[in-house]
Amino acid sequence: MSTNVLRTPDGWWAVRNERAVRIQTKAVTTAELLADRAAVREAAASGESGTPVADLVALPPVTTPCRVVAQMVNYRSHAKDSGFTGDIPPTFFRKASGSVSGPHEAIVRPAHVRFLDYEVELGLVMGATLPVGTVVEETDLPHYVAGLVLTNDVSARDVQLTKTQFYESKSYPTFTPTGPYLALLEPEDFARLIDLRLRLSVNGVPRQDRTLADMIVRPAQALTLLARFQTLDPGDLLLTGTPGGTALKAPSKPVEKIAALLPPALKWKAFFNGQAKNPRYLRDGDLVTATIATPDGRIDLGEQRTAVADAT
């Protein structure tokens, strides 16, 4: 059974039934903790009553600096929302690790960003080096992937679309809320990944709700494709895509055809004038709540609650 690990300013904790037992380790980074799994198992098996999780301040369980890589359009429902038809080529992009923030830390909207969007995503935390050229089979996942985290791939859509790139639009500080838990998996847990359900709501209103059955490129294949050009190391993070339900959606086909006839400046002006009427984008004071878990709770990455705040 998976073991949930919490990171706080005081160190690392093993969590059981809303109580946490301190892990006796000298590990400072996530990679160092993964190399000390014996200490994690000892704390998880401890008979100590522990400390209420509610009394602890959760930090992101993925320490930085590290590599943060993400998959683009990797759920069928998101592909449909985005206007894709036919086969979608697997695509990866990088995020700055400075965007990683805590599971209850505010998402800060930069002053120049008008259209702030959310994307709940399952994060894979590497437990072993993945060299370039590696082929990962399903049975190899327990060797390369140590655990899972809940993430939110926050996106500045007006930056993303007008500059036709992802790095800046998804890399501002606080644009990757992560945690609260790092779920360290046992080999038998990997068969349950398909049952994981991703949910996200804004101000209590559901926006996203899908299982990994909706995923296009599964983790083993994704790691194989990524390893064609990218090395990953223990503690690195791979975000595996988001389901449909984000604020941004492709325009209707008639609108898209008309827009294609316009000069770029007029096209973007018309598009964003339309988006300004979309109430689903995040605004100052909104509360984003996200969870990822199997129905039986065997794997449960905890609940992420992040307020949205305008930059001051």
Describe this structure in words.
The structure is a single chain. The chain has 8 helices and 19 strands. It is of the alpha+beta class.
Oligomeric assembly: single chain
Q: Helix amount, in percent?
A: 10-25%
The chain-level mean pLDDT equals: 94
Identify the strand order in the major beta sheet.
Answer: 4-3-2-1-14-11-10-17-5-6
Instruction: Report the radius of gyration as a whole number of Å.
Output: 20 Å
**What is the number of beta strands?**
19
Alpha-carbon distance between the two ends:
44 Å
Uncertain stretches of 5 or more adjacent residues: none
Taken in chain order, the helices and strands follow as: EEEHHEEHEEEEEHEEHEEEEHEHHEE
Residue share in β-strands? 25-35%
Number of H/I helices = 8
Shape: globular
Broad structural category: alpha+beta
Q: Tell me about the largest β-sheet.
A: 10 strands, mixed
Detail the topology: elements first, then pairings.
Elements: E1 3-8, E2 11-16, E3 19-22, H1 30-34, H2 37-44, E4 51-52, E5 68-72, H3 76-81, E6 91-95, E7 100-101, E8 107-109, E9 116-117, E10 120-126, H4 141-144, E11 145-152, E12 155-156, H5 157-163, E13 176-177, E14 182-184, E15 197-202, E16 205-211, H6 219-226, E17 237-239, H7 253-260, H8 264-275, E18 287-293, E19 300-310
Keywords:
312 residues, alpha+beta, ten-stranded mixed β-sheet, 8 helices, globular
Concise structural overview:
By secondary structure, the chain is of the alpha+beta class. Helices cover 19% and strands 29% of the residues. The strands form 4 sheets. It has a 10-stranded mixed sheet, with helices on both faces.
